[in-house]
Amino acid sequence: METQLRKKLIERALKNHVIRFFGPGLLREAALYALFSGGKRIRPLLAFTVGEGLGADRKKLVAFGCALELIHNYTLIHDDLPAMDNDDYRRGKLTVHKKFGEACAILLGDAFLTHAFELLAELQSPKLSCLVARAIGGRGVILGQVLDLGLGQNGKDAKSLDFINQLKTAKLFEAAIVGAGFVAAKSPSPSLVKSLRAFAILFGRCFQLADDLADWRDESKKKVITTAVAMGEQETTRSLRTLLKQLERQINRLAIKPNTRQQISSLAHTLYAQKAQAAA
What we know:
By secondary structure, this protein is an all-alpha fold. The protein has a single domain (2-279), classed as Farnesyl Diphosphate Synthase (Orthogonal Bundle). It has helices at residues 2-21, 26-35, 42-53, 58-79, 96-100, 102-122, 126-136, 141-148, 158-184, 190-222, 227-231, 233-253, 258-279; strands at residues 89-90, 93-94. A two-stranded antiparallel sheet has the order 1-2. Strand 1 and strand 2 form a beta hairpin. Helix 3 runs antiparallel to helix 13 and helix 4 (58-79) packs antiparallel against helix 6. The longest helix has 33 residues, at 190-222. The radius of gyration is 18 Å and the shape is globular.
């Protein structure tokens, strides 16, 4: 119930922000299309849940969650572009550049990133803004995309793919989960930051492995190299089970309210159950 309420609050705020940031016209239409095409809101939900477990203000968590969702969708829009992954469909619908044109997609992604940092600036936490910028910048998500495209490297093995996944996927989860600690307190304790970061990295690795397993048949047919394709279905499944056990132990170590630990665990298991079903 709490998860559904949090999701409704985030989605209501996202719609309000679209109206605030974009005037009537093509960009607003494209923004609504991109943001409301069936996303699970997993990053803002994680931030929201962890933040409430640490006693953070709900309004600030909604704003932070919206910033994360804008950033996440900026990465999706740009990843789908012809110069990147060249995808025609996402979540069963035309990608933004296929629906609205390449120029609109590029500019919309730029606008999402810009307005995400507007929301972060309004939270008046320079450390939080720096944390997010570092997670998605040239040593984080963007570097992961550079490596994933094969720019400046030769070939991909399981080890390099795991590193790419940590950058492209786990880094934004790290921004969400560790960032929740900075929403709750301007200077959270080093031990709390360390435990949140460990949880975030594990969560991101589990998420990517589960995602790869859900897609491995299609990806192997297309000869797309992912961790599941490189390692094989059985080995990837074993690795995911091992990581999920580590993730559960790390959740139990978090210095947050016990009921929040249960909510986080439930959120994770629901997500991975959905991906396992997709892989079947």
